[in-house]
């Protein structure tokens, strides 16, 4: 796995994390309603579920790609289309925070974050298509471990930061006034990355 591929995957994942969705909603809502500690528990739950998805995608898809070498290009195209769809959704955003049910504190917040990500039908599509950029039949165990560690750490750091920020009323008010521009910026970058992934797929 080359460093360029690794940075591409981490960049795409960072933008996907920033883009508001169910995970973002449950962490922010938990932090607002139940406080900072509960928000951090919810963030840990989301990151744990992401770790499971990454592991399943890496192990399972490596076997599939070994049997069907041409599938990698198909998945890359699907991934590019999915990133483009995310980008368009961000560009169409009105800058509103997604709704979510209030979660309780402690371990219940962890379970809420965990299940929100694990039961999201788009999660496997996302990880399967994005990770196909890096997966090769002979991918070293060290590369798999590095990829898993970085993606989970990136997820945990982002959602922990979200929990910390959204437990502050002042930060929440500031972000609400600027969320539409954040969404549009993320959307534009996602479209650029979608184009880059599609170009890699047709080479």
The total of helices stands at 9
Helicity, as a percent range: over 70%
Mean pLDDT: 76
Q: What structural category do the secondary elements indicate?
A: mainly alpha
Q: Order of helices and strands, N to C? A: HHHHHHHHH
Quote the beta fraction.
under 5%
Shape estimate: globular
Total beta strand runs = 0
What kind of sheet is the major sheet?
none
Radius of gyration (Å): 17 Å
Distance between the termini: 17 Å
Low-confidence stretches: none
Short descriptors:
single chain; 203 residues; mainly alpha; 9 helices; LysE family translocator
Tell me what the structure shows.
- The chain has helices at 3-18, 22-34, 36-67, 71-91, 107-118, 121-131, 141-166, 169-176, 179-202.
- It starts with a helix and ends with a helix.
- 80% of the residues lie in helices and 0% in strands.
- It is mainly alpha-helical and 203 residues long.
- This is LysE family translocator.
């Amino acid at each position: 796995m080359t460093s360029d591929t690794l940075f591409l995957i981490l960049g795409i994942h960072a933008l996907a994390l920033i883009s508001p969705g169910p995970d973002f909603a449950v962490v922010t809502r938990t932090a607002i309603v139940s406080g900072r500690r509960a928000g951090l528990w919810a963030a840990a739950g989301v990151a744990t579920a992401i770790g499971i998805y990454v592991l399943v995608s890496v192990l399972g898809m490596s076997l599939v790609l070994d049997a069907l070498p041409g599938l990698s290009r198909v998945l890359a195209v699907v991934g590019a289309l999915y990133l483009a769809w995310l980008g368009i959704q961000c560009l169409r955003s009105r800058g509103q925070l997604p709704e979510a049910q209030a979660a309780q504190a402690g371990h219940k917040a962890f379970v809420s974050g965990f299940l929100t990500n694990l039961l999201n039908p788009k999660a496997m599509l996302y990880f399967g298509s994005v990770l196909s950029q890096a997966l090769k039949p002979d991918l070293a165990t060290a590369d798999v471990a590095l990829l898993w560690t970085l993606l989970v750490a990136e997820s945990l750091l982002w959602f922990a930061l979200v929990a910390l920020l959204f437990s502050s009323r002042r930060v929440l008010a500031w972000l609400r006034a600027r969320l539409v521009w954040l969404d549009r910026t993320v959307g534009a970058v996602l479209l650029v990355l979608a184009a880059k992934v599609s170009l890699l797929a047709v080479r």
